[in-house]
Amino acid sequence: MKCFIAVAEELHFGRAAKRLNMTQPTLSHRIRKLEDSFGVQLFIRSTRSVELTPPGETFLPLARDMLVNLDEAVLLSKLAAGGMSPGGEHLKVGAIDPAAHRLLPLILRRFRNRFPETRLDVRIYDSSELLRALERGDCHVGIMRPPSNVNLVRFRPLVADRFMAVIPRQSPLAARTSLRLSDFVGHKVFTLKRFELSSFEEVHNQITAAGIDTDIGVNVSNTTAALALATAGLGITFLPEWIESVVSSAVVLRPVEELTQEISMGIGWRADNPVPGILPFVEYADRVSRAR
Questions:
Q1: How many Cα atoms within 13 Å fall on the side-chain side of residue 59?
Q2: Pairing assessment for the beta strands 141-144 and 90-96 based on DSSP bridges
Q3: What would you measure as the largest C-alpha separation in the chain, in angstroms?
Q4: How far from the centroid of its chain's Cα atoms is residue 232's Cα?
Q5: Which domain holds residue 74?
Q6: Is the dihedral of CA 124, 126, 109, 106 positive or negative?
């Protein structure tokens, strides 16, 4: 089931195999076994592409739900055995803005459905503020970028986003579905300067190394601001793919063949915090993210 979901989301056996930490032949064999057991073809494969068949598209949301329900059953059994089921405690949840658009709602819905008596206080922070809030105990769990200096905070990775080209719709590159870095030479390009996050620095360095001149007249260090500039038609930029949930029709998102950098997001918490809802929330976050 996990193999099917990975291939369905990546639409590429090589990337799905890397994500699952297995070889591509092993992954292909497992997909064939699944198709044989169902008696239907789930994917259309060619040397150039992988696509879901209509039965595959029907099965994908059901497969995600089945995995979450199975993981939830295992988790609840463990919680019952360890006597750590949440009750009426007050759980303070923090998140950075990218998490609020996709990942956090999924986690909150699953957690609240199972533990309705837990009182939830949800707040949005930037990454550095969230880390300090966790360290101080002002926040119990946080959906955040990997901290460079964890100190008292434990961190578990949950998801990773690839970087995508954000192209104003009026740009001639907007009509292209396949792009390489060399295609951006001569176009107005700016980069997001968040070099405290290594992924953004790596993207900037790769872009300049490809001979692309970045617009020195644009200085932006916030994803939302960078998206606003691209939406206004002031240039092309490169941002994590989570923004697909908030972009307008004024821009298009396109993958770039050589741009393989990813930026991860995970959950942080203090292991010495006694609030009983923390560890169940961490486990739910882990299971929901793996079923996406």
A1: 19
A2: parallel
A3: 62
A4: 26
A5: 2-78
A6: positive
> Could you write out the DSSP letters of every residue in 83-110?
T----S-EEEEEEEHHHHHTHHHHHHHH
pLDDT tens figures, 160-173: 889 999 999 999 99
At 287, list the tokens.
């299971």
For the whole model, what pTM was predicted? 0.65
Cα–Cα distance measured from residue 47 to residue 49, given in angstroms and rounded to the nearest whole number: 6
Q: Output the six-digit token pair for 208.
A: 């300049």
Cβ-Cβ contacts under 8 Å for 107 (sequence gap 6 or more): 143, 281, 284, 285, 288, 289
**Each residue's pLDDT tens digit, 197-211:** 678 888 999 999 999
Q: Which of 54, 78, 102 is the last residue of a domain?
A: 78
CA distance 73 to 288: 13
Tokens 């002002």 belong to which residue? 138
β-strand 153-168 against 43-45: which pairing, if any?
A: unpaired
- CA angle 272–286–133, rounded 5-degree value: 40
How many residues does this entry show for the chain? 292
Token code pair at residue 121 = 């206080």
What sign for the dihedral angle of Cα 163, 166, 172, 176? positive
State both tokens at 66.
């089945």
Looking up residue 193, the CATH number of its domain turns out to be: 3.40.190.10
Coil vs helix vs strand at 218: coil
Q: What sign does the CA torsion over 234, 240, 241, 242 have? A: negative
Query: How many domains would you assign to the chain?
Result: 3
Question: In Å, how far are 70, 78, 87, 148, 231 from 81, measured between CA atoms?
Answer: 17, 5, 15, 35, 52
